[in-house]
Design goal:
The complex is a heterodimer of chains A (231) and B (159). Chain A has 231 residues and is of the alpha+beta class. Helices cover 27% and strands 15% of the residues of chain A. Among the domains of chain A are: 77 residues, Roll (Ubiquitin-like (UB roll)); 45 residues, no CATH class. With 159 residues, chain B is α+β, with helices and mostly antiparallel strands. Chain B has two domains: 53 residues, no CATH class; 88 residues, Glutaredoxin, CATH 3.40.30. A four-stranded mixed β-sheet of chain B has the order 2-1-3-4, covered by helices on one side. In chain B, helix 2 packs antiparallel against helix 3, helix 3 crosses helix 4 and helix 6 runs parallel beside helix 7. The longest helix of chain B has 20 residues. The chains are: A alpha+beta (231), B alpha+beta (159). Chains A and B meet through strand 6 of A and helix 4 of B. The structure holds iron/sulfur cluster (2 copies) and FE2/S2 (inorganic) cluster (FES) (2 copies). The site of one iron/sulfur cluster has 13 residues of chain A, from helix 4 and helix 5.
């Protein structure tokens, strides 16, 4: 039998299935927590930190990633306090500085309210979200991809030899990689990177007034918000 | 390449993924590095996907995926040793052997590596020569050590 626990998210008492993450629960109830590395049905690794929330316990709050936080009885979660919104905006800003050539990440930046990028653009082609690695391991069960190296040398690679010795050609990694769709204006060259922001118009007035509520924003499609993937 | 004997290392550890690091450490001790073929066998015998074997092997500085020289010189470039002048030691290596840290001399005698702190900061700069810790190293003492390590080979050739 399924077991349920009661949690309070942004003041709303909700009932969640035991063993699910706070992020899944929030999305299920239409509470918007922007996220990048989470894919429904695949293990979370908490790589992008976009989904941070405040977990209030004994009068103290701790900021933590909601995708790796499992629901517990009596939990109190806040998803869009000023503190969280500010931190999340900063994380989105760092992401867009690292990889401006991704439509998904540009969209997330818009959704998180980034208006300027104060960091130097690096224009990398991977944000180490680990989506490809986990898809390959869990859905394709091919184990063809993995993280190699650590610190600033960490990158996605395949075991030595040919990738084709392991790959099952399922294309999952490409489908789920946030880098595989470039911003509408085409890829930006080195030195020409900017915050795209064109999709700002797609963010309806409601979304701006109620940052914590999922309004099925068009942007979500761009960054594969699990709201769209789950249905 | 001679066939690597993994039986003694794998004995009693087969199908136990959690033994991965132990197996790799023993393999590193036996061979001096982690050969590709051996890693494939390890992956199969322990039931760990090959990519995970590589991930672990790349993560720890204790493992090397390239063959290493007979003499492994490890220079500590941690904070304390850096302050005490370990960058002079690294420069000494560059000048004397013409190799960068992480590389091996073409004759396969000396490999130079850098690590960040080995826990003996008060005695720094520390150089580890094949598991022997040498304290208070200076470019001069390192030069003599390297000469000796390279020289041994010359005598062997002459004889
Ligand atoms: S296409 Fe190949 S590498 Fe990509 S997820 Fe599928 S099996 Fe893995
Ligand atoms: S290649 Fe793409 S999916 Fe994989 S970690 Fe990098 S950004 Fe994420
Ligand atoms: S979705 Fe939680 S850290 Fe990326
Ligand atoms: S910094 Fe060299 S031993 Fe600690």
């Amino acid at each position: 039998m399924l077991q349920y626990v009661n949690v309070t998210i942004d003041g709303a008492p909700v009932r969640a299935e035991k063993g699910t993450s706070v992020l899944d629960t929030a999305i299920h109830y239409g509470i918007c927590i922007p996220h990048l590395c989470h894919i429904p049905g695949i293990h979370d690794m908490g790589a992008c930190r976009l989904c941070i929330v405040e977990h209030v316990r004994n009068g103290r709050s701790k900021v933590t990633a909601s995708c790796t936080l499992l629901v517990e009885e009596g939990m109190v979660i806040r998803t869009n306090t000023d503190r969280i919104l500010k931190m999340r905006k900063n994380i989105a800003e760092l992401l867009v500085a690292r990889a401006p050539n991704s439509k998904a990440i540009q969209d997330i930046a818009v959704r998180c309210g980034v208006t300027e990028v104060r960091y130097p653009f690096r224009n990398e082609n991977c944000v180490l979200c680990g989506r490809c690695v986990r898809i390959c391991k869990e859905r394709a069960q091919a184990n063809a991809l993995g993280f190699i190296g650590r610190g600033k040398e960490r990158h996605v690679d395949h075991p030595p030899g040919k990738l084709m010795d392991y790959c099952k050609n399922c294309n999952g990694c490409i489908l789920f990689c946030p880098m595989s769709v470039t911003p509408c204006g085409g890829p930006m060259k080195k030195g020409e990177e900017r915050l795209c922001g064109k999709c700002d118009s797609q963010l309806t007035a409601d979304a701006r007034k109620m940052p914590g509520v999922c309004v099925w924003c068009e942007l979500g499609k761009g960054f594969q918000c699990s709201r769209y993937l789950a249905v | 390449m001679a066939k690597i004997n993994l039986d003694s290392i794998l004995e009693g550890r087969r199908s136990q993924p959690h033994m991965l690091v132990e197996v790799l450490l023993d393999l590193q001790d036996q061979e001096g590095y982690l050969p590709e073929e051996a890693l494939k066998t390890v992956s199969k015998e322990l039931g760990v996907p090959l990519i995970d074997v590589y991930r672990v092997a790349h993560f720890y500085k204790a493992f090397s995926l390239k063959p290493r020289g007979k003499n492994v010189i490890t220079i500590c470039t941690g904070t304390a040793c850096h302050v005490r002048g370990s960058d002079l030691l690294v420069n000494q290596v560059r000048g004397q052997l013409g190799i960068e840290p992480g590389e091996t001399t073409p004759d396969g005698q000396i490999t130079v590596e850098c690590v960040n702190c080995v826990g003996a900061c008060a005695l720094g700069p520390i150089v580890i020569h094949n598991d022997v810790y040498c304290k208070n190293m200076t470019p001069g003492t390192l030069r003599r050590k390297l000469d000796k390590a390279a020289g041994k080979k010359k005598e062997a050739k002459d004889a």
